[in-house]
Amino acid sequence: MESKQPEQLTMLDKAWNAIHGLRQSLKSGTRRDGDHSPGLSFLSRLRRTSLFSRRKSRSLVSRILWIILIWSIIVYLLSVAGMWWSSSKVIEDNFSQQARDWVSKLDEMGTPLYAGGDAELFHAIEEHVRRFPEISYLRYYESGSNSVIAEYQSDKLVKEVPLLTPSLFEALRLSIDEMEPVFIETADEKLNLVQVAAPIVTRSIRMEDMLEFSLGNEDEETYKIIGFIELGLDFSHYHDKLIENIKAGSLFAAFMLAAVAFLGRILIKRSLTPLTRMRKPLEQLAKGRIDVRVEGEGDEEIVAIATALNTTIDALKSRDEELRQLANYDALTGLLNKHNFNLQLRNEIQRCIDAEDTSALLFIDLDQFKHVNDNLGHAAGDRLLKQVADLLKNRIRSEDVISRFGGDEFTIIARSIKEEDARIIAESILRAMQQFVFVENGQAFNIYCSIGVVLIENNDFTAEEIFSQADMSCFHAKSEGRNRYHMFDLSEQEELRKSADISWSKRISDAIQNDYFTLFYQPVVNLKGNSSEHYEVLLRMIMEDEEVIHPNAFLPAAERLGVAIDIDYWVIRNALRKVSELCADGRDIYLSVNLSGRVFDAPDLIEKVQRYIAQYNVDANRVIFEITEQTAVKHIEKAADTINQLVEIGCRFALDDFGVGFSSFNYLKRLPVDILKIDGDFVTDMSKDPVDQIMVQSMIQIANTLNKQTIAEYVQDAQTLEMLKRFGADYVQGYYLGKPSRDISRDSYAEVLDKIETNIVTF
Amino acid sequence: MPIPAIRNRAHNSLLQHMLVALLVVLIVSGCVQPVKQKPVEQPVIEKPDVKPVLKPAPEPKAVVDAPLEKVILLLSGDLDTYQAVARRMADKLGDRAIQLSLSSNRASNQSLLEDIEHSDKGIIIALGLRAARLASQLPGKTVLFSHVVNYADFSFISDSMKGVSALPSPENVFRDWKAVSPGLARVAIVTGPNMQDFIGRAREAAKQQGIQISVSTVANDKEFLYASKKMSLDIQGQWIVPDNRILSSKALKEVMAYASRRGRQLVVFSPSLLSFGGLMYVMPDDDAIADALLQRLEQYDVSSSLGDEDISPVLQHKTGINKNIVKQFNLTIPEAYRALIHGE
């Protein structure tokens, strides 16, 4: 029973061989396909497959289906193995019992052979056993000589079966007490028989026991071995039948598993459909769009996920709205703030250009505000500002725009009006202010204002220029005695500007040619422990009288005169030369260089930068070009292209004045900048203004999310510095740490670092 | 070095042997009288209230003319049937009888035989096969034996050795069986070898009752089983003779079960077999055995010969009827046999 013929190897045997091979492979840690990498175990390879890898992106439905399929195959194999094992066990037990029964029956049938040796008797036995094909042979032995007295062999017996050996006879004699036949282990596998033998024993009751008979004293009986019986049973027919049945059962089970897997696939796909439907809105959400909704349907877990996502989206919307509110409106008066007003002004200019319309900008400055603030305190000043804001709001139309520009300055954009209407509005405001009385602590104050009015027409002025005109007109009104308005006259501006431009043109030209420009260096300090020196390069012009001129004075003229790009080249060249000198001196130094928007139109920028870098033998990584956010967004396509080319060289980029325009974050993805330089307006009063704190913190978080570093400029005090540390800013810069200076010594930078390390602020 | 327990047992055995030998010598020489055994409680013996076919054994006559030979009652063991027969004989023989029992110790038995052999003349009544075999080895001794079925196997029959049958009288058996089952016409008997005398008597007795008998002689229990099954095809019943040579518990059970399944009546030799499907049991009555022995002894006293009859029949027997089987076969028990029904 235990031995198997080679041709009887089943699929299960093959599967077992495969598992055995797998086990060996696991033990040795080698691959079967010839890759004998010792360090690569089977399990690690298995984990690296797409099914079990967590790193590889794979459809959840597909993964679940694969797992179900593999699990089904495992269950199937285990079922078949179990079926095979249990069936074999049952069959084996059954065969053993059949063998015992046959021995008992043939023992009884063969008894007469020992009485008289009647050949006819055995013929009857032969006829009987011939009807049972499983009996391959049958032998009766004599007890004394161990010789065969009768023998039967089936026609199907493939090979002569050897007679019982003397040792087996002895074993049979010894087995008499067990009353069990002896199963013979045959070495000849070709026989494929269950061979069994038993002694033929006669028993008799003792005479004494007969006289006082009691049925059951079998142990007291005497016995005598009169012979032996041996027979071979061929159960291969039943064995083959068993294998056929198992094969059929396996096929049926495989079919059922396939059917279940198919149905499971349909059910799982249907069940997970709501989950897959979430993919698109989630992708939109990942891109920053928060105007999406996630549909929740199906199972309660999926509904819960959708609900949670929608709640998160609502929270993001709410926070986004809150941030927008904080970013666009003045916390004290509720009017638009400076940032938003600038945006509105630009939009209005563009609208007027597009619609060939005319609007007006009114710049309002309170005349006595400083007096109120100084005498009654900031709280009273704030109350005054709120009351003035309410007054002004009531004087404008719904389509007009009003903002608190800063301090006691208010601005109004009056849309679609002519000069006369602008004058009427200005006079109306003056009258309202003249009638306004501010009462504080029982004291009454008359608060007047001066107004500069400029028309927004279809001309070539920028927002800054228009604002400057309004500011100038307000100054003019104040200079004429306050409590009045001044309408800006274009002829005055043109004359002024032309004269100024002629003057600046000569000066800029001389400065470029004669190096009247000079570079100032303001320290930029790393808050994360990096001790490398870092400065922002700032351009200054030196006048004949050694007066240092700020670039705001000459850059607008340079822009108009088209020489701004020459200034950019001068700054880049001299900055690189400086880096070269300092590095040669053993300094670990980095310089930030500001670029104007003109560089994006310069066809030879990249070539020149490469030439300068080569000329001064400077590591390109040590130069960080700064470009303002507004400039970059304005020339987004060109900016992205130029930045990419410079980054390829090795230079780095910082986005200056970040947050001013509050542009879409999508732009950030398109600009490969390394650093976001938070606009100084957010930082200057940050220690006092919680809105600025939130804004700065948010910008730092955004930068961190985008894996970019941050520089906070205009740090004016220790509290601001401490806050920036807490918010996680990477670099800081400002007067508190160091003013722009020609001094770029190692000692001065060390002093700045000391200030960072010893900065202790108690709130 | 012998183990103490075994050594003590050997000493006890030797001492016992010497005392028994001394006692036998004293008794045989008439110096002492054997201790009369205290009567034991008599087992309930069921006797049918029917007249026996053969004449019962006459009461033994007292011998007064000359001193009679001593009678040695040699028991093969302490079975109740030996004791019952010996007790009845001792009662009848009085001081003339000496009762001796064989033990399980072969040396002790041999010594006992030597003592008997060297004693004066005396008749040995051997009860059981062991006693008969040992007594047959004693030269010059007159032996009567009982409780031996296969006496022919040992050639016990001679002029100085005769016996009493260990089997119930076939005449009685067939008479009672026919009375209980009047339709009985074909029965079978399976015996061991050398039972021709018994078979002959059985054939005659069956014929007298109008019963056709099939007889098979077999050598062992397997053949008994085989023959019984084979013969059961065309018979109505089988008398299982208490021949220990061909019977084993297994074969008995199987034959009885086989016969029961096929509706065959069985006459068995022990009441314990009724519960296995026997219709009735028949076994020799102990008193009848004793009477038969006494009758042969009386004959010997008169003629100094045991006579021509090799084996004396036992004319009375104990019997019982299985009520359940009677119902199964739908038999009507005659009034005279009602008292024999088991289970009433």
Explain this structure to me?
- The complex is a heterodimer of chains A (763) and B (344).
- With 763 residues, chain A is α/β, with parallel strands linked by helices.
- Chain A has 25 helices and 22 strands.
- In chain A, strands 13, 14, 15, 16, 17, 18, 19, 20, 21 and 22 form a ten-stranded mixed sheet that branches. Chain A has a five-stranded antiparallel sheet with strand order 2-1-5-4-3, with helices on both faces.
- In chain A, strand 17, helix 18 (605-616) and strand 18 form a beta-alpha-beta unit.
- The longest helix of chain A has 57 residues, at 60-116.
- Chain A is elongated and about 160 Å long.
- Chain A starts with 10 loop residues before the first helix and ends in a 5-residue tail after the last helix.
- The model of chain A is unreliable at 1-40 (pLDDT under 50).
- Chain B has 344 residues and is α/β, with parallel strands linked by helices.
- In chain B, strand 6 (186-191), helix 6 and strand 7 (212-217) form a beta-alpha-beta unit.
- In chain B, helix 2 (80-93) packs across helix 9, helix 5 runs parallel beside helix 6 and helix 7 packs parallel to helix 8.
- The model of chain B is unreliable at 1-58 and 60-64 (pLDDT under 50).
- The longest helix of chain B has 25 residues, at 4-28.
- In chain B, the strands form two sheets. A seven-stranded mixed sheet of chain B has the order 7-6-8-9-10-12-13, with helices on both faces. A six-stranded parallel sheet of chain B has the order 2-1-3-4-5-11, with helices on both faces.
- Chain B is elongated, with a radius of gyration of 22 Å.
- The interface between A and B is medium-sized, with 28 and 35 residues.
